[in-house]
Amino acid sequence: MTDAVRVESLYKTYDTGTPVTALDGVSAAFEAGTFTAVMGPSGSGKSTLLQCAAGLDRPSAGRVFLGGAELTATGDTAMTKFRRERAGFVFQDYNLLPALTVEQNVVLPLRLARRRADRGRAREVLGTLGLAERAGELPERLSGGQRQRVAVARALVGRPAVIFADEPTGALDLRSAREVLALLRTTVRDFGRTVIMVTHDPMAAAYADTVLFLADGRLAGQLSAPTAEAVAAHLTELVAA
Amino acid sequence: MIAIALRTLRHRPGGFAATFLSAFLGAALLMAFASLLDTAAGADEASAESLGTTASVAGGWCLVIVVFAVTSTLSLAVRQRGDQFAVLRRAGATGPQLRRMIVGEAVAVAVLAAGVAVPVGLAGGRVLLGLLKDTGQVADGVGYAFGPVALAAGFGVTLIGAVIAGFATSRRTSRMGVKRERPRARRIAAGLFLGAAAGCAVLTATVMDGKGIDAMQTAGQAGIWGSLGLALLAPELLRLTGTSVRLASAVMPVTLFSGIATGTVYMQGIEDDAAAGQIQPDYARDIQTLNYVVVGMITVFVAIMLVNTLIAATVHRRREFAQLRLAGATRGQVTAMVAAEALRVTVTGILAGSAASLFTILPFGSARAGEIWPSASIAPYAVIAAIAVLLTATATLGTTRRSIRGPALPQA
Ligand SMILES: Nc1ncnc2c1ncn2[C@@H]1O[C@H](COP(=O)(O)OP(=O)(O)O)[C@@H](O)[C@H]1O
Ligand SMILES: [Mg+2]
Predict the structure, then answer these.
(1) Which of A122, B162, B204, B406 lies at a CB distance of 3.0 to 4.6 Å from B219, suitable for a disulfide?
(2) pLDDT tens digits, B392-412
(3) A64: in domain
């Protein structure tokens, strides 16, 4: 099995007056075609890990491999070009540009990558997500759940190998959250993509194949075939420890 | 890339209002002065010389102020949309792509502003020519011309200013990872400006001693460079007084205003005293008029920059205000807190400006009147300080009141 993403001894220190160590030596491998949830108390370094693994930020030390190639060995521009070929992103606050229509938001990564902004492909993805009729509207006209589905469509449009999601259901009601999670699940099962998702919700984590736990910037356990109850129990232990 | 930038501009044009306004006013002023050079091409020799002097003296430093105003308003407009650039970066925009977008936006605003400024610059140039004719500087028969020099100056400077500002701003935005402000470039620029100020001051007191009114050129520049230099050091000055560095962008315009206004007004005062009873070159009246026009224009630019930065700073703090109110602070208490901060900003700016104005006043007094400290009334200084306080108070309290109106509910 090849690893879609691998991180080796990641350290990240934020230097804002007093230095904060967000990652304190994290090594992990994410197999291609799997769905992994990353959990941990607030401030444990989950978002930092995701951003470093995805090439959105640079670790202070350590190496990141995306699809077998080392991301951390390149400069900023090369790193951006590399990740936009292979990674898609979904964030809690949707990250849509208010001035662009739904369809324009969806094809944005393709346009930035100067790949042919294939309208057919955008329509196809939007159709799959039940948003075909909203293609020409501005994001402000959509509900939170719909906006997040647009964000998922944007993450999927370039057929990336890996999809990184940071609390994708954090701002959604229960029904919209389940829809988004089911979508992520489907992309793994039916299209062989790899999904790495940060969440604090045990119910969301139960959609994953594996759960990684973080505490104080270090790995603190792992669960396979998780249930919401098992995840919640492990979390409670972490917080109590 | 440019298409995305333009769509964003059209979607929320309000964010660029201040950039547009300062580019528009700047372009209009530059065109008005530069059209005097177009006019000079068709005038007799004496008239042409007078036109040339007026255009180059006033136009020259006008350029510095315009570039400064456009840069500061533009970088604020870009910083306010930091979250949008973060979105683009996450969607795969590279640093160079973001840079092209930001510069593209700046250029679009500048071209539009300069275009709209053409009729205003044309009318302004006509007024200036009328002034010069009234004082007998330019022969009555000289016809007004608005041509290539005016257009090149208006569009050229505004565009170049926008491109430079766009590049400078985007460098910070497009870099990866945690972005901390790098004060080195700013401090180096401040040092250079202060060096230029000192140079002009020394020149005024030595080479220009005894040259009469002509010493104004170097003396006036000394104060402008000094004000710019100290304005760039606003964060350091605030740190000295223990005030939040976040308000540095508001100290800048106050420093510029009080520095240039004080320097210019007192320089003219010294000149008026020294000239009493002497035979004056016939352009003395023009220069007097121009000096007051200069102070007036500075006031307008500073008002735009000040209101712009204060509105941005206050809007940015909406959440903080809302939390204060939730914690039980009354509207009056929030307003009092903001007023106290505004006062510190104003006092810091006025003190820095006063120091900068000495670059003009001391050497000019020595060169023109033989005394370093002017025996002038304190009244103009008091008026300038009062204007600075009034501008800051109006802008701060107005925006604060608007953002804390209504019930103490948390705002998004
Ligand atoms: N940009 C930043 N600047 C400074 N400190 C940061 C920054 N981002 C995160 N941190 C700090 O790093 C630690 C980990 O943050 P984060 O990765 O966001 O945790 P999580 O996502 O698990 O809540 C926290 O202590 C946080 O305060
Ligand atoms: Mg987080």
Answers:
(1) B204
(2) 888 888 877 777 766 554 433
(3) yes
